[in-house]
Amino acid sequence: MNPIETVRFSCPWCGEPAETVVDCTTGDQEYVEDCWCCCRPVVIRVELDAGGELAVAVWAEGA
């Protein structure tokens, strides 16, 4: 795994494709980014397991 990974997802609000860059050196994290298209807040949860596998969950903030 690279220290920086690009993750693609669909906005839970408008369905538009989006992507974010994840710093894999910081471990598990959760943060909010606004959708580039509809500007609504999207929660992004990143988890790294012991084997270094990346798991990403995305949902609408407040939904």
What would your notes on this structure say?
This protein has about 60 residues and is mostly beta strands. It has a single domain, classed as Chitinase A, domain 3, CATH 3.10.50. The chain is about 0% helix and about 55% strand. The protein contains no helices and 5 strands. It has strands spanning about 5-10, 15-25, 30-35, 40-50, 55-60. A 3-stranded antiparallel sheet has the order 3-4-5, with no helix packed on it. It has a two-stranded antiparallel sheet with strand order 1-2. β4 (about 40-50) and β5 (about 55-60) form a beta hairpin. It is elongated. The model has no long low-confidence stretch (mean pLDDT about 90).
CATH topology: Chitinase A, domain 3
Using the coordinates above, name the CATH class.
Answer: Alpha Beta
SS-based class: mainly beta
Rounded radius of gyration (Å):
12 Å
| Structure summary, number of beta strands | 5
Dominant shape: elongated
Amount of helix: under 10%
Q: How far from one another are the termini?
A: 32 Å
Which band does the percent of strand residues land in? over 45%
Number of helical segments with 4 or more residues: 0
Quick structural gist:
With 63 residues, the protein is mainly beta.
